[in-house]
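Q: Predict the assembly, please.
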Amino acid sequence: MKVKCTVSYDGSQFYGYQVQPNKRTVQSEIEEALTKLHKGEKIKIFASGRTDASVHAVGQVFHFETNLRIPDDRWPFALNSLLPEDIVIKSAAYVEHEFHARFDVVKKEYRYIINQEKIQDVFKRKYCFHYPYEIDLQSIEKACDLLLGTHDFTSFCAAKTEVEDKVRTLYSIEVIKEENDIIFRFIGNGFLYNMVRILVGTLLEIGQGIKSFEDIPAIFKGLDRRLSGKTVPGHGLYLWKVYYDN
Amino acid sequence: MKVKCTVSYDGSQFYGYQVQPNKRTVQSEIEEALTKLHKGEKIKIFASGRTDASVHAVGQVFHFETNLRIPDDRWPFALNSLLPEDIVIKSAAYVEHEFHARFDVVKKEYRYIINQEKIQDVFKRKYCFHYPYEIDLQSIEKACDLLLGTHDFTSFCAAKTEVEDKVRTLYSIEVIKEENDIIFRFIGNGFLYNMVRILVGTLLEIGQGIKSFEDIPAIFKGLDRRLSGKTVPGHGLYLWKVYYDN
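A: Predicted assembly structure:
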């Protein structure tokens, strides 16, 4: 039987999601817990996609195959008791055999949080990017309008990205001010390597007047990573939700 | 000259506030940073009081003597650049020579946060006490009314407390529900060892019906730690603010 799980993790102490030899990763911790639960039988998980070192997840999704007969709502408790405290399974459900956590993704939501307090909030240091500079939200919102829709995002992904087709669609970008935080909320059909972090870096440079929102069309057209802004740090980024049909 | 500093710290990685041989403590980290800044001259700090292992501070206050002439508003930056990332100096001010961070305290505010989500929120695991049990807030509020005012708090402090006078005054207790969190906010003229954690433990037992709010007078009267509730964990506790005259 196939189980679909929603998992949240604090990315601070991980070398990202994907298994790497001799590194602590989210995937390896979950596979180890599942293997224990299956009395040594090796279980492999398939996630909606990777996340990088120090990037968090509120609603990452993965699936795996199992012969264990555990009720849906007991899976989180069974797994959480075997997982380290920085990974928490939020829910689980049996799904049809055809379901695939990566290939069936319809859209994804990422959030990026910056904190604008002058002096760093000690409790947010691993969960927001501390950015105490004045930014003009109106220019940022104008830039967001130009980023929306279907584009070749070559200029907004890490130069070493191996994927060939770099056309993606951004359905919505929201910029929400909450006290001293600014939350950037992106929903799209897919995201390239470092894409959200480069989009935010570019928006912040526009907010500071280093770049203009009017530069966006030329950045797209240039198909060159060097035209966009800096990549902001991973610890402000959250894989918030993965959407599937049904 | 005498400097008064307000400091916040994430208690997770400390063996409490006070210096202990071979342990990482808040006091020793701050004194080390100050000593560096004073080119090796040993600087001692005096705080409003101690906090225990894993207890956080939003607004702990301490003072120290210095011969350095740094403007008030530059002290936080000078010190923060030398401090580890889990201690942040929020503000500093020159004060009169008579000021003492401990002896001049007029009142203190502590907060204790519990999280009631069924499944732990991974981002709150070090910053709230996970308590997913149903509790009756009305009984808790009735108990709070009986705790207010001036009492001998012997039954509400750790048995090993050495202080002789255990009479303290609680000016206010607020119980605030915020989404899935419940925040207990205590303001008093002073707090005994483990007092807030035992008060919250007792209130939670009242909320669950293990004890009744009507037991409070007898618990006070008994002058016996065994009459009150369990001590809740340190990681839900925050020294929120220290009040002085002026």
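Residues 195-207 of chain A form the longest helix (13 residues). Strands of chain A lie at 2-9, 46-47, 56-65, 87-95, 107-115, 129-130, 149-152, 167-178, 181-188, 237-243.
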